[in-house]
Design a protein that fits this description.
Blueprint lengths: L3 H11 L4 H45 L9 H11 L5 H4 E8 L2 H7 L26 E10 L6 H5 L7 E10 L3
Helix pairs in contact: 2-3
Length: 176
């Protein structure tokens, strides 16, 4: 019996069956977590780029007087939503359009602070004043991104509920 025991131990030492499954169980969870975080970060950065692009297009329409004060906020939002590829655009997109005669006066009115999300969103009023010829204007569009991957809200959320307020900003001067 003493002779057989070491040979069985040697066979067990040489047997590698199941080691890949064990190694994947140790590393796989972290791998899936990191890949999911990378994918969701990429998606919300694409949405951020898309929002900025939509703000530039909408700002150009205001600047060229294609959007007048007779246009309703809902019509303007639907034009912006046509440029975006986001879910629930009509209910989660918020618009703030302001105008003033001078850039300095306009800058004092814009609801935007450095290193803070814009003050345009849920439970905040939306302003729609596209202005007239030769007036300065600002356009802020926001979309509150709800993270679907766990723990992303702790690292990337900039709102108290853990969501991320994505925004597009356009400063313009209306043509005469």
């Amino acid at each position: 019996m003493r002779i057989r025991l070491p040979s069985r131990l040697n066979r067990l030492k040489q047997c590698q069956k199941g080691t890949v499954a064990i190694e994947f169980a140790i590393v796989g969870g972290w791998l899936i977590l990191v890949l999911g975080a990378i994918i969701e970060t990429g998606i919300f950065l694409i949405i951020q780029f898309n929002l900025q692009n939509a703000a530039e297009i909408a700002g150009r329409k205001i600047r060229l007087n294609q959007v007048q004060s007779t246009t309703s906020l809902d019509q303007f939002k639907s034009e912006i939503c046509a440029e975006l590829v986001v879910r629930d655009c009509a209910s989660r997109l918020f618009v703030d359009v302001r105008s003033d005669n001078t850039f300095t006066d306009l800058a004092a009115k814009v609801p935007f602070e450095t290193n803070e999300p814009p003050g345009v969103g849920i439970n905040q009023s939306q302003t729609f004043e596209p202005g007239g010829p030769d007036q300065w204007g600002s356009l802020i569009i926001t979309y509150d991104w709800d993270f679907s991957f766990p723990f992303m809200d702790h690292f990337f959320g900039n709102l108290p509920n853990g969501n991320r307020r994505l925004f597009g900003l356009s400063i313009l001067k209306n043509e005469s």
